[in-house]
């Protein structure tokens, strides 16, 4: 082998080792990084510092306006960054990658007529070849990875294959980030729903119980203690029928049987008395729904609230009304009431005599 051929082989080996090291470092970074911005910054830095590319930048695709917008870079002077965030030309390097989903390579910028508008900039900075690779997320192109070399014919078949592999790994990482983001959003939504449930149900004045077919309490919200005085632990050892007033059990049984016969249909609101922990009776208004066939519930949902004050007020009003009626009708005097226009409102029985 001639000395010249030996030098060429040595140069190829050095270049190949450099590219392998570059790809290896990107893959190692992917394992530790958790977001796209960090991944893009790290990839450009590794390409510039370890891959020894003259310039490296990643652009984000704005397909509506046919633009690639530079988001991270290494090796480009700040005063020149605007040159890389512009509308891409039809059939230009960025356009070809966006349309075809494949790489674009130019191994001799100086003699490429299609790059005449960019040739002077490249030659002044010692850039002789470049490659544009597609960055994808969930199968769609979202940007490009752009690498520039000071060597003519730098990107041969082997190097291109390695760079495609590296860009494919970046795209795979973006898919992983997206899945993790959606998973995090779902977890946050569940947590928010649980917090909302606790605020609306557990801290509310109304209560919710989950009952078995026989009325055993499998779950009850903490507000049970405000309503009937029992802790949740105490209530879980009870069943619905054991705390209902004897005079109200027949009515509850009728509602219960109708509810069991109509899965998913809320019962009409019914009122019954339940025993408070202190031995008193409290009036409860409840709506029950048969969710035994729903795997996520597997029970009977009992929504109830304390209406004792309303019932006591109603009873007091009825008592006052009946008491007044008795007093009026048991007098020998004639009595009646009229409004301001002297229209008759009511009268006692003596008036009829």
Describe the structure.
The protein has helices spanning 3-32, 36-49, 93-100, 116-124, 157-202, 224-228, 232-235, 249-260, 308-329, 349-352; strands at 55-62, 67-74, 86-87, 104-106, 129-137, 140-149, 207-211, 217-220, 270-275, 281-291, 299-306, 336-338, 344-347. Residues 3-7 have low confidence and may be disordered. The protein is rod-shaped. It has 10 helices and 13 strands. The longest helix has 46 residues, at 157-202. The strands form 3 sheets. A 6-stranded antiparallel β-sheet has the order 3-2-1-6-5-4, with helices on both faces. A 5-stranded antiparallel β-sheet has the order 8-7-11-10-9. A two-stranded antiparallel ribbon has the order 12-13. The chain has 3 domains: 13-179, 2-Layer Sandwich (Beta-Lactamase), CATH 3.30.450; 201-306, PAS domain (Beta-Lactamase, 2-Layer Sandwich), CATH 3.30.450; 312-352, no CATH class. The termini are far apart. A hairpin with a 7-residue loop joins strand 10 (281-291) and strand 11. With 353 residues, the chain is α+β, with helices and mostly antiparallel strands.
